[in-house]
Amino acid sequence: RCPSIGADVDLDADFVYDYEKLRLGGLIFAGVIVFLSIILLAGNKIRNCGKSKVRYCWMGL
């Protein structure tokens, strides 16, 4: 059945936010992002640990 023209129909009347799941999902997402960023930043230092970084500057005259 189609509602009559001009009738106000609220299609989202039965929609309710589940704030606990939304909050938990946000915290998990933020934790994963922080963990991955720490691994990314520390990984480069761990990989280069013990290697000397000698850079030679060549000046072509």
TrEMBL record:
GO BP terms in the entry: monoatomic ion transport; regulation of monoatomic ion transport
Single GO MF annotation: sodium channel regulator activity
Compartments, as annotated in UniProt: Membrane
Membrane topology designation: Single-pass membrane protein
Statement: the UniProt record of this protein carries the keyword Chloroplast: no
Keyword flag Transmembrane: yes
Main location: membrane
Family: Belongs to the FXYD family.
Name of the featured protein: FXYD domain-containing ion transport regulator
